[in-house]
Specification:
This protein is mainly alpha-helical and about 475 residues long. It has helices at about 20-25, 30, 35-55, 65-75, 80-95, 95-110, 115-120, 130-165, 185-205, 220-225, 235-245, 260-285, 310-335, 345-350, 355-370, 380-385, 395-405, 415-420, 430-435, 445-450, 460-465, and strands at about 170-175, 180-185, 210, 245-250, 290-295, 375. The longest helix is centred in the first third of the chain and has 38 residues, at about 130-165. Belongs to the lyase 1 family. Adenylosuccinate lyase subfamily.
């Protein structure tokens, strides 16, 4: 059998770079290996510019505005040729960050001139350990992926769910607690609960902190102060990290501690879990006939049963959420651990960040497409309500309790009397009305109880949808 491993162009090993590439491709600009190298180039360039601008190393001339612009164009114009050049250098250095340093030093003479290049090139990666560059690069990568790609897609889904809640705010629904018929609600209110939960988690994610450091091999500024003791390196470090749009971490070992990453991934995983809950709920509502899959469903539902339209979008979303969370959980658990001042477990672990967000993105896409293909079937919901008049037992016994508390006679043992009527059997509307007439209610209360139906017993459910943030 011919090997597929040698095919050209290369065949993707994973689904994200194969059949689902189109859905997750926007993450490539932020969380791929070339994106990491591009950010490394960006950080190294900005560190060089920063050092010369603030005069951190006496005797080194400042870069002109034109030179700064040319340097900044290097990461901005980063393309396939640069990717291959870096790979070629890394094959020699066997060190990815050192390859970035040499890559930039090759370009410096053409920008600052042959005469000044030797001196200025010594400030590329000056006093830095690899993690100084890597931690800042990853922070910028994750920040860009979350704020520019993942969060906007998540926000669109939350709004889609909220819009559905508003549209169905008044549609009565038989609730099911423990899988059993329970106090009616509305479909809109139940969907609003999910939208509210998702929105709350999304706001936590949008408020995430992205930390960074640049303080040397063990976080002491040892090389900095040994080389140039007169410079306020703490201020130089803080100002530089903040200039990148990150929050400065003043206390680290060789690595930035990654606690912010663990916090972020836990929040994204929690969002994923709420979305998983949404998928299983809608899957169940579809199976109960409360929603019909009618729009955008020109697909084959079953290979042998032509009548079927399977809720595959929600099932696909569930699977991808589970994969995403498995990765997010292990990232959060592993990244906060490091032996003494440094071990290298985080290096391999962080290369899975893109995969974790990719599967979440794929789930967002599938859930959104699944919701877009649904039409509510109020008649099916109404039919279930009409088959379950016993759910009004709660309303009647509560009215009896209120009257009994107010001193009205004949209202004793309300729970027990309703339990005897309703427990373990179906009753009709006529059965319930006959029972109400025999309770001795005051006329106005009896009239209200007789007018009550499962479909009208929804409390304040429609108004509660208004609590959704717009």
């Amino acid at each position: 059998m011919r090997s597929l491993a040698s095919a050209t162009p290369p065949i993707a090993l994973g689904a994200l770079d194969g059949r689902y590439r189109g859905v997750v491709s926007a993450l490539v600009d932020h969380l791929s290996e070339p994106a990491l190298n591009r950010q490394r180039v960006h950080v190294e360039v900005e560190w060089l510019i920063h050092l010369t601008t603030v005069g951190a190393v006496p005797g080194v001339r400042a870069l002109t505005e034109a030179e700064q612009a040319q340097l900044r164009a290097i990461p901005q114009d980063f393309d396939l040729a640069d990717i291959e050049e870096l790979a070629e250098i890394e094959r020699e250095t066997v060190h990815d960050v050192k390859a970035v340093e040499y890559y930039l030093k090759r370009r410096l003479p053409a920008i600052v001139g042959e005469q000044d290049a030797p001196a200025l090139s010594e400030l590329i990666h000056f006093a830095c350990t690899s993690e100084d560059i890597n931690n800042l690069s990853y922070a910028l990568m994750v920040q860009g992926a979350v704020t520019g790609v993942w969060a906007p897609k998540a926000a669109r889904l939350v709004e889609q769910v909220a819009d559905m809640a508003r549209e169905l705010a008044d549609v009565p629904l038989l609730a099911h607690t423990h899988g059993q018929p329970a106090t009616p609600t509305t479909m809109g209110k139940e969907i609003a609960v999910l939208a509210h939960r998702l929105g709350r988690q999304l706001r936590r994610i949008e408020g995430a902190e992205y930390l960074g450091k640049i303080n040397g091999a063990t976080g002491t500024y040892g090389a900095h102060t040994a080389a140039v003791p007169g410079t306020d390196w703490i201020s130089v470090s803080r100002d530089f990290v903040e200039s990148l749009g990150l929050q400065w971490n003043p206390l680290t070992t060789q690595i930035e501690s990654h606690d912010w990453q663990a916090e972020l991934y836990a929040d994204v995983a929690r969002f994923n879990r709420v979305l998983h809950n949404l998928c299983t709920d809608f899957w169940t509502y579809i199976s109960m006939g409360y929603f019909a899959q009618v729009r955008g469903q020109g697909t084959v539902g079953s290979s042998t049963m032509p009548h079927k339209v399977n809720p595959i979008r929600f099932e696909n979303a569930e699977a991808n959420l589970e994969v995403s969370n498995a990765l997010l959980d292990v990232l959060a658990a592993t990244l906060v651990q490091s032996r003494l001042q440094r071990d290298l477990t985080d290096s391999s672990m962080q290369r899975n960040i893109g995969t974790a967000f990719g599967h979440s993105m794929l789930a967002l896409d599938n859930a959104g497409r699944g919701l877009a293909g649904l039409d509510a079937v109020p008649a099916a919901m109404a039919a279930d309500l009409d088959r379950n008049w016993e759910v009004l037992g709660e309303a009647i016994q509560s009215a009896m309790r209120a009257l009994g508390a107010a001193g009205v006679e004949g209202m004793d043992q309300p729970y027990e009397r309703l339990k005897e009527l309703t427990r373990g059997r179906r009753i009709t509307g006529d059965d319930l009305r006959e029972f109400v007439r025999g309770l001795g209610f005051p006329p106005e209360v009896q009239e209200r109880m007789l007018a009550l139906t499962p479909a009208s017993y929804v409390g304040l459910a429609p108004q509660l949808v208004d609590f959704l943030e717009r």
